[in-house]
TrEMBL record:
InterPro entries: Ferric-bd, SBP. Belongs to the bacterial solute-binding protein 1 family. Fe cation binds at Y223, Y224. Gene3D superfamilies: Periplasmic binding protein-like II. Transmembrane segments: none annotated. It comes from the Bacteria. SUPFAM superfamilies: Periplasmic binding protein-like II (SSF53850). This is Fe(3+) ABC transporter substrate-binding protein.
Length: 336
């Protein structure tokens, strides 16, 4: 559709709903999103269709969006921030760009460990960071926990993504929360000693290195596994759910928070509640092969096929609280 007809459509909507005094003013929400357009646009369209509320949005990476919110301050047009990783959501709350919200609907729909205890942000989909292995060169019976990947039997067999990525900072932060700094540092040193290659730039590269025979095991977010296997179903890779006898698999969220200076706060809260509802949760999670945060909603069949697992129910906000400590620990351990 041409730019002209798009703006013409918006203008028509304004004529129909925006005339003052008719009591029909269309509600509007402005969203800043670190999730890309392809993932969020279908949701916005569905919501507009259902409620008439218009949604304007801007997408960018999480860093620039947070900077933008800080710079704009009270003048920001944004009502809602959508981003990935509890570490980023936690940072946004700490930087003062989010508002706390008390909502019975959100509290009922989103499990307590997947949202901020003070209501500054809410997880909307769950991503599991788990073990991936080569089905020809590693056996599930050899695998057990994240900690076990530090044992000498994995020497020269492990591939990891760089410690610069927030996903690994969150994983290590959660390990600190669960077992303290000294034990976690010992484990991370063990990982580094077992590395078959320098840390790799992304999760897909980790799996490609395993498939190519450079290493036998790694740690990745499950949706990258789903994407890669869709393209390359021939690859001899499988997921393993670690720590099932103790705390469970490390999970993180993508989620959202109402901005501190929202101009359409009530409308934005209504939209956030809708995002957590049974009808929207599959739309939010499935396109990126994630798990719905709302427990009443089943994952997409392709995701469910990876099997069910026990997840760590420590509050994901710990990933933010302990992030700086995790970064320093990884640095001391020589994890680049
Ligand atoms: Fe990702």
């Amino acid at each position: 559709m041409s730019q002209f007809s798009k703006s013409a459509r918006r203008w028509v909507a304004a004529m129909l709903f925006g005339l003052p005094g008719l009591g029909l003013a269309a509600e509007e929400i402005v969203v800043y999103s670190a999730r890309n357009e392809q993932l969020i646009k279908p949701l916005f369209d569905a919501y507009t269709q259902e409620t008439g509320t218009q949604i304007k949005f801007l997408t960018d990476s999480e860093g620039p969006l947070l900077e933008k919110l800080k710079t704009e301050g009270a003048a920001t047009p944004a009502d809602l921030l959508i981003t990935v990783d509890a570490g980023n959501l936690w940072l946004a709350a700490k930087e003062g760009v989010l508002a706390n919200v008390q909502s019975k609907t959100l509290e009922a729909n989103i499990p307590a460990h997947l949202r901020d205890p003070d209501g500054y942000w809410f997880g909307l989909s769950v991503r599991a960071r788990t073990i991936v292995y080569h089905t020809g060169r590693a056996k599930p019976a050899e695998l057990s926990t994240y900690e076990d990947l530090a044992s000498p039997k994995w020497k020269g067999r492990l591939c990891l993504r760089t410690s610069k990525k927030v996903y690994n900072q969150s994983l290590v932060a959660m390990m600190i929360a669960r077992q303290g700094e000294a034990k976690t540092e010992e484990i991370v040193k063990g990982w580094v000693a077992n590395l078959a290659t320098e840390p790799l730039p992304d999760d897909t590269k980790v799996m490609e290195a395993i498939a190519a025979g450079q290493c036998d095991v790694g740690i990745v977010n499950t949706y990258y596994y789903g994407r890669l296997m869709k393209k390359r179903p021939d690859l001899k890779l499988a997921l393993f759910w670690p720590n099932q006898q103790d705390r469970g698999v490390h999970v993180n969220v993508s989620g959202a928070g109402i901005t501190a200076h929202a101009k359409h706060k009530a409308a934005a809260i209504k939209f956030l509640e809708w995002l957590s509802s049974e009808k929207a949760q599959n739309l939010f999670a499935d396109e990126n092969l994630e798990y719905p945060a709302n427990r009443k909603v089943k994952p997409h069949p392709n995701v469910a096929a990876w099997g069910s697992f026990k997840q760590d129910t420590i509050n994901v906000s710990e990933a933010g609280r302990l992030q700086v400590q995790a970064v320093k620990l990884m640095d001391r351990a020589g994890y680049k």
